[in-house]
Amino acid sequence: MSKKKQINPPSIFDGEGWGGDIFAGGGGDCGGGGWLRFDRYLDIVQHDAECGFYGSGRVCFGGDFATAAAVSPLFAGALSGQLAQILHSSGGGVLEIGAGDGLLARQLLSVSDCARGGYAILESSPALRELQKKNLAGLPVQWRDDLPRAFCGVVIANEVLDCIPFRLLRKRGGEWLERGVVLQNNDGGFAFAERPLAKSDKRLIAELPPDLPEGYATEICPRAEDMVRAVAASLSCGAALFLDYGFGAGEYYHPQRTGGTMMCHRGGLSDSDPLESPGEKDITAHVNFSAMAKAAESGGAKLLGYATQAQFLINCGITDLLASHLEGGAAEYARLAAGANKLLSPAEMGEFFKVAAFGKNAPPLSGFRAGGKSRLL
Fold first, then answer.
1. Which terminus, N or C, of the chain has the lesser number of Cβ atoms within 10 Å?
2. pTM of the entire structure?
3. Residue-wise pLDDT tens for the chain (377 aa)?
4. Neighbours of 174 (CB within 10 A)
5. CATH hierarchy code of domain 68-164+221-368
């Protein structure tokens, strides 16, 4: 097995290996002087096919972090009921965006007939696509390179929006500056540097609260908004479900959230330094679900529901699923109960994660029949 290529900080600025003149300093996303906009930095350290955390397949699912599907098969069991309702109404099939190691797809296909109308995966990483094909061998799954022009059915994006490259802003002297990445002369490592926001990007900060305190740092993710808008536009009937950690805008831009939401994950541990060990860890930001709702609406879809993961799964019958395993033996039931607790507990994933649904020509969704939080968007 060949050793994966490592990221050498000077190399991404000198025009060798990862982008040529983009990193040498001349205009566009980067400007002069070797300043690299943060989302372009993430393109390399997260998604480069040779050395990126995801793009190279370096990520260890279940080791660096655990998705809901890895926490418990009850997640897919409950989710499948919501999928069945949408598919019964709309017909069509299932399209999963960013399927990771394919575990959720495998679980869904094992507990439901959601493949009747076809199960497809849209995956941008060649390395992850190969992993998915290995893990889903023999199952009725197809892979796509892009969104269909007109799609009926269900789109699933589980923990996808949080890892789309985002941009960093900081308020200085009453103005918003953009944070980018430069080389440190003393040791050749990376450092943050700020510069005025480009005039063409002023529209991106139109929704930021005007009274945020001096020094406030936050993230914006136009690319995630673009993806949600594109998904909404591609839907002709059915719904798109986005499951991720995040907040509505009121919480996202809380005056006390002065450091933003960016976090890094590696080996089950978390830290807040995205410039250390580039390419070796996951770098994410929470999702601004209010911005995603506006993007979906601009794509022609309606908000069908917004709820915490706990409320959504309870509405989808996860507690009944757990109870159905009472006769399966104490050890098995205890294992499933522990997983359910992590999915539902406010101290774990229950409140931290949210579910937002957008759609066209779709019925009221059972996952949002009680306890919805759409008013927060």
1. N
2. 0.91
3. 344 555 555 555 543 333 333 333 333 444 445 899 999 999 999 988 888 888 887 777 766 678 999 999 999 999 999 999 999 999 899 999 999 999 999 999 998 787 788 999 999 999 999 999 999 999 999 999 999 999 999 999 999 999 999 999 999 999 999 999 998 766 668 899 999 998 889 888 998 999 999 999 999 999 999 999 999 999 999 999 999 999 999 999 999 999 999 999 988 889 999 999 988 999 999 999 999 999 999 999 999 999 999 999 999 999 999 999 988 789 999 999 999 999 999 999 999 999 999 999 999 999 999 999 999 99
4. 7
5. 3.40.50.12710
- The CATH 3.40.50.12710 domain(s) of the chain lie at 68-164+221-368
C-beta of residue 171 within 8 angstroms of C-beta of residue 212: yes
DSSP readout, 297-342? HHTT-EEEEEEEHHHHHHHTTHHHHHHTTGGG-HHHHHHHHHHHHH
The set of residues, in sequence order, having a beta carbon less than 8 Å from that of 102 and lying 6+ positions away, is: 121, 131, 132, 135, 136, 141
- Residue 179 sits at φ, ψ, to 5 deg, of -90, 130
